[in-house]
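ARCHIVE RECORD
Type: protein–small molecule complex
Small molecule: NAP
Source of inputs: curated submission
Record status: active
Notes field left blank by submitter.
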Amino acid sequence: MTTIPTVTLSNGVEMPQLGFGVFQVPDLKECEEAVSNALKVGYRLIDTAAAYQNEKAVGQAIAKSDIKREEIFVTSKLWVSDFTYERAKAGIETSLNKLGMDYIDLYLLHQPYGDVIGAWKALEEAYHEGKIRSIGVSNFYPDQLKNLELSVSVKPVLNQIEVNPWFQQDDDVAFIQQEGMRVEAWAPFAEGKHQIFSNEVLTTIGAKYGKTSGQVILRWLLQRDITVIPKTVRRERMVENMDVFNFELTSKDIRAIAELNKNESQFFDHRDPVAIEQIFGSSLVQLRS
Ligand code: NAP
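STRUCTURE (tokenized, with ligand):
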């Protein structure tokens, strides 16, 4: 079984370099089974979120496994509807209860909107109380990250952002890393968009090493010092997606992948007012209730 190497976050906490994401697995039985299989094949980092509505299934799969809790790294995220100090405090407790755990390894503010500073204060408190071992953010652009850093006392250890061959994010990745934070890539496969798994450049590179396009993508991210959390519900793909620590891309391979950059999000621009309204809009209803 592949052992996944770890990295040390800026607060000294160790985190696996590669993990398992469970976005878009709302069926709790399917999610529990996927997480159980992921743990069996060797994953030790599970990435969930309040918004995915499957924290309970993640917690159950972990509880039923024969792996010690401290050997598993659990990430969850607070949704925008809980971005006030008071609501965030309650949101953290809800995540802990659903997961059935007395601590979460990494807890993120899922989006850069609303009362981010108020919510962050609640994360800081839970961090000091030992309920959360590390705190970070997701989808923050450099200016938003800098604003947060300058407004709070505990700096985020990590920013989880979209990075894949179509949206390579060189400048943002460099900025986050310069700030001493870890970059974690969501949608490393761009959820399969533009036939990423049969892309000729990626499959040709992979053929040299006996690897698939997906494995080339994950290796490319790891070589950029980025943590990856691919999602799959299929056991054979779980094994495939972990088998990326036994080959090395050359600088020529990396230059060829750089050419694939479309330089735009494959999902939505987090600065687009319409997208913000869509994300925030549904949350406002809850905030005002
Ligand atoms: P992704 O990992 O880029 O792609 C997942 C898709 O690829 C699924 O359709 C999966 O299908 C397929 N797939 C996986 N491995 C494959 C392989 N080896 N060969 C062929 N197809 C394969 O997309 P994602 O789930 O959006 O992103 C990964 C994780 O990042 C999420 O699960 C979540 O934890 C996190 N995320 C965070 C945010 C955020 O805002 N912070 C946003 C999106 C995602 P099957 O399942 O059928 O195999």
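CURATOR ANNOTATION: The longest strand covers residues 73-78.
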